[in-house]
UniProtKB/TrEMBL annotation:
<dbReference type="GO" id="GO:0030246">
    <property type="term" value="F:carbohydrate binding"/>
</dbReference>
<dbReference type="InterPro" id="IPR018389">
    <property type="entry name" value="DctP_fam"/>
</dbReference>
<dbReference type="Pfam" id="PF03480">
    <property type="entry name" value="DctP"/>
</dbReference>
<dbReference type="GO" id="GO:0030288">
    <property type="term" value="C:outer membrane-bounded periplasmic space"/>
</dbReference>
<dbReference type="GO" id="GO:0055085">
    <property type="term" value="P:transmembrane transport"/>
</dbReference>
<dbReference type="InterPro" id="IPR038404">
    <property type="entry name" value="TRAP_DctP_sf"/>
</dbReference>
<dbReference type="InterPro" id="IPR004682">
    <property type="entry name" value="TRAP_DctP"/>
</dbReference>
<keyword id="KW-0732">Signal</keyword>
<feature type="signal peptide">
    <location>
        <begin position="1"/>
        <end position="27"/>
    </location>
</feature>
<protein>
    <submittedName>
        <fullName>TRAP transporter substrate-binding protein</fullName>
    </submittedName>
</protein>
Amino acid sequence: MTRLTRRALGLALAAASLCTALLPAQAQERTFKLALQNPKGHPLEIGASKFAELVAARSGGRFKVSVFPGGTLGGDAPNVSALQGGTIDFVQLNSGILASQIKDFEVFDFPFMFANAKEADAVVDGPFGQKLHARLLDKGIVGLAFVELGFRNITNSRKAISTVDDIAGLKLRVIPNAINIDWVKALGANPTPMAFPEVYAGLEQKAIDGQENPLSVILANKFYEVQKYLTVTNHQYNPQSLIMSRKVWDSLTDADRKLIKDAAVEASAFQRKVNRDKSADDLDELKRAGMTVSELSPAEQAKLRDKLKPVVEKHGAAIAATVAELQAELAKLRK
């Protein structure tokens, strides 16, 4: 090879390296981490995997989302901190937990706020839900879409619950926030705030008598192995938020942001359908697993609502404008 040829080759290689370094953001391959608390096979994990699939397909394989289910990257609070720091890219969690960032998110933990899933969809997908998600931006969080955990029910290892008074005295695990602590106290039970990854062990070791969660969570996490009694109360509906690190979001092009946002919205609709289609089967499977299932009579259900109204009033006072806005939305839907 002549000196001139070697020089030309060197210049060509340098130019190629420079072009690679200057490739636009959309041409770079990236792997993202998505954390959630429920295990593989739960509708939330299925929805997260659908999101990963859509992102990979629409990016032509440039983007990969690695899903970490079952609390393998820690509990919700550490996950949110890591997301704000940019070390976790996506988190899926109960929307009410975001009250630690924006207090108005507490409204999603109010007992008996939504009568059915159709109401919840209209609220979270409409201006109300979108406005709340938008407020997270100043906290280093991008709200992408709402998925669902669903309606919550009470389990315990001590006794069947057929009346509201039967709940008194039980030591129940709750999501660590004030409203959940207060509604359990209002029923005469003993609230025990606990991160979700610790719940099974707490039940197994009798540190707590029971917990409350949707049927899909009770089944997927095998709580039936350490809980005998299930009471269908549907006392709370949990939307979940799929959120993204703003640090990561800001590093993307507008086109790639749209790609991720669109994938999140499509995956959320898919996840809700999966969750609702499984609900009846989940109850039957819990019965086959040996759980004793009871339901409150209409009179007892009304009593439960009445006991929890003061809790809603207490916590609603601090976010009165948001509560009024939500109630106005619900009033329109119920006409």
